[in-house]
Amino acid sequence: MPNLRDLKPFNDDSIYSFLQNSDAIVSVIHSFRRHTLVKFGGSSLASSNAWQHVFDHIRRSHHNQPLIVVVSAVGKTTRALVGCVHHAAQGRLDEVEQGLNEIWATHKLIALECIQPEEWTALEDWVDHLLSKLHQEAMQMAKELLNHPSPVCSAHGDAILSLGERATSQIFQKVLENVGVPSVWVDAREVIMTDESFGAAKPNRAKIKDAMTQHHSLSSFWATLQEQPPKREIPVPVLGGFMGRSLAGSPTTLGFEGSDLTATLLAEASNAERVTIFTDVNGIMTTDPRIVPNAKHIPTLTYDEAEDLALGGARVLHPQTLVPVVEQSIPVHVRNTFQPDHPGTIIGAQCDSSAHTPFVKEWKAVAMAVTNQADDSSVLTFLHATPDGQSQLRQWSEAYALQLDVDVHGWHLHLPPLAALKSGQNSDSSLPLSLQAIHDIFFP
């Protein structure tokens, strides 16, 4: 059986014995220059062109304010790794190996396309060595998953699922350094401490703060922040999101969109000035622009509005993303990697929608989330519907015999499958409107 506890166990008495004076580090965090936590999602890292956009942002920003960077796995890597985990549980190791090789090839291609051809050999050798090591580890873990009843919610499953962030973060840091930005890779498994709820582990925020202030790879970052003025360029720490480690040493993951939560946990632990989450849309919209193309931009949301939207099913943020930053009132800025001039959405305690009223007076709700159910039906959740919006929902519910539920997260209208809603061609007596038309009624 492979050793899941190859990392040193987290120990309250000596987390990192080489660091003799953690109190000095803690004092730096609460004084001198404040930094920003920046998180780049998988869609922001899906190609070498996307990486160049990210590098450009880091170059522009880190001269003005120190940055700590969190990266998700490249593109759809985590989804592919979920497939590998299921193949492993069914004993199809050839398909596991094939899936892993495709993932590694994508990472290698992106890395090489980001640098000059004359530098390929050295980087290629380094990447090959890293990916070979990760591949061997993955195949060992895959063998242990045979016939596992819940492979995705297991220590071995989490170990495989975290390989995307482990590969992306290390290669990203190496290429970032290569293109001229001083940086350092930090193993997030040594910082994000959790329980053992595999697949959706609960973070231990006190332990994370200890690890953040005491981790040896961050010592140069904190030391340079203390210099007034800095005598050298402040390095950019790079961590993988999504993954963590239990206090007993088992690999864990934080669940869907867990990299967002990684960023806010680190922001809380390090007293960051703000968190910026980069994705492929212009901040938070009135609904998912991938299913309603003319969804409208929401410039500001309160913490609880954004949290309700996530809990209502909107695939915008991890539902627990905002919990760590609320107490310190650290704002979260959601922006588009590919449209750097767009203002995005600012989530904070004080903003224009703090009274739970729509950003635009004519809107009938703050936002609308669309979710699919196990029975192939869909649910539209209208966040903080206005009296006019509530009246409209009741009218549809009564006229077309549609289930309408209300809870603290919003008004939930149960409808036909999403495919029928997109086209507006419902085959039964249900609401004869397309999803686009419903949206336009609520957000004229």
Helix amount:
25-40%
What is the tally of helical segments? 15
Radius of gyration: 23 Å
For the report, how would you describe the main beta sheet? 8 strands, mixed
CATH fold category name of the largest domain: Carbamate kinase
The name of the CATH superfamily of the largest domain reads Acetylglutamate kinase-like
- How does the helix and strand content classify structurally? alpha/beta
Give the amount of beta strand, in percent: 15-25%
The pLDDT mean sits at: 87
Strand order of the largest sheet: 3-5-2-1-8-10-11-9
Do you know the CATH architecture of the largest domain?
Answer: 3-Layer(aba) Sandwich
As residue ranges, the low-confidence spans are 1-31
Shape: globular
End-to-end distance: 59 Å
Any idea how many domains? Answer: 2
How does this model look, in words?
The chain is globular. Helix 3 (77-89) runs antiparallel to helix 4, helix 4 (93-113) packs parallel to helix 7 (163-178) and helix 5 (120-144) packs antiparallel against helix 7 (163-178). The protein is 40% helix and 15% strand. Mean pLDDT is 87; it is low at 1-31. The chain is built from 15 helices and 15 strands. The longest helix is centred in the N-terminal third of the chain and has 25 residues, at 120-144. The chain folds into two domains: 22-280, Acetylglutamate kinase-like (Carbamate kinase, 3-Layer(aba) Sandwich); 367-442, no CATH class. A hairpin with an 8-residue loop joins strand 10 and strand 11 (345-348). It has 444 residues and is α/β, with parallel strands linked by helices. The strands form three sheets. An eight-stranded mixed beta sheet has the order 3-5-2-1-8-10-11-9, sandwiched between helices. It has a four-stranded antiparallel beta sheet with strand order 12-13-15-14, sandwiched between helices. A three-stranded mixed beta sheet has the order 4-6-7.
